[in-house]
Structures are given as structure tokens and as C-alpha cells.
Fold:
Amino acid sequence: MTEPRPALLLLHGICNNSSLFSIPDGLGYHLSRDFDIFPYNYPISRHKSEPYDFDFHLNRDMPAIWRSVCGEAGCRPFVFGYSMGGMLAMAAQATGVIDAPAVITAASPFRFGTVPLYPPLMRTFVRLSAITGYRTVPIKVLGRALCALLTAAAPESKMNDLNLFRYLIKTASINVPVETFMQTLMWMKKRKFTDRKGKLDYTELFSRVKSPVCMIYGTHDVIAPQRAVKYGFEAVASAKKLMVSISDGTHMNMTIGRRAEDIARITAAWCCKED
Structure:
């Protein structure tokens, strides 16, 4: 009789949906070798008409997702979050919204520096929203336009990431309410991982996390560089915690290919092996 495989809840990042984990040779494919995977979209279906941001996902989506996956899996799943999905996993674990036996994050920043291009773009989206009254940012259209602009000026070394970005825009991106960008701008302004009002620093709550935590970062990731991951890592109180680097990993290329396979190996070792 085949041993049941451990359950793994997968949480995607900002501007994405669970299709991030359906990319051929991507994270979902590699993680499914060792786990029964449960990729979830947020906002959940009944919340899609509401204006959502990170706090909304944490307080409204995650309780429903946690109940659903626990019921479906028949146990408490391990949790793997990519980019903002890892931030959501850690905040949910720290606030008691979930109670995972272990949390793994990849490419998830917990402190914010200046990322060129992103803040001006987000501010432009917010201003356009204020002028037009249109509350949703059309990521698919704007992403394609951004790809065209960047392709014209990008060096050859960046083309693989741009091609992957173009593919993700086509297959796994969603249009996003302006509220999400407003909270993201708050993080960049304060350089902290806070609630929408900028008063509660979620990272300060990581001292409540006692379960095993593994944080994975790419050595070439400008959105979640080592220092941004380390800030969250040092706040975690768990006796079993680990930071792991992915050589030459960028925010994009760790979602597919050998780097995704490396991340899946690390995740399986962390969750399924004692040493």
C-alpha cells in the first residue's frame, strides 16, 4: 500500500493566480513529485467583486483557504509561498490565522528598499485610478506594453527573464485592484512590511512563529535580495529555521527549470526529512 504523501498548500504572488504553479517544468510540477499540492487562488471566488489588498487576503481569504485545504487534505498542510505568497504565509502563521507544521518561502521580501521602475509605475496606476475612477489595474495590457519597452533596451543577458515575464503575463497574471498597489507603495515608503495603515509591522510578530521556517532567496533577486529576506528570518523565533540561496536566482527564473527543481528539493528535504 502506497504511503500517503504530505500535503502542501501553494500561495502565489502579487498580480498572479495559481496558474503560476501550472507552468511546464515549473514549481508546481517539481513540488508535485513529493507532495500532494493544493494551489489556491486568492481572492477566493466569493470575494472577487470586493476591493482587496494584502490585509484583505490575510484576514478574509486565508481563513477560508485554510479551512478548505485542511478539510480536503484531511490534515494540516505544509505551506509554500512564492514572493507575496510567502509574506502571506508568514503573516498568517504569526497571527494565528493558520497553523502549518512548517512554512517555506521563496523570493519573499520582508523589508523594502528602492526597486527601480516599480514605485513610479505603481504611483502612475494609482493616479490614473484617481483621475478615471477605474479601480482595477489592467496588468495583462500594461505588462505587454512594459515587455515591449524593456525588450527594446534590455541586454541579451536579461532576455530569458523578459521572455518568462511575457509568458507569465499571458498565462498567470490577473488584473489587480488599485488598493493592492496602494498597500505595496506603503511598504516601499516605510520600508517595512506593514498593514494598510502603516501601523502594524507584521515582521515584529514573527517572534510568535515557533514552527520550522525555511526562507529561500535568489542571489540575483533585486525584489527579494538576501538582506530583505534576512530581516524576516532573524525575526523568527523558531528553533529550527534556515536560509538557503539559489545561485543566479532572479525573481522570475526561480519559478521554472533547474532553479525551481532546486527549490522543490529544498522544500521536500525541509518538510520530509529529519536532518
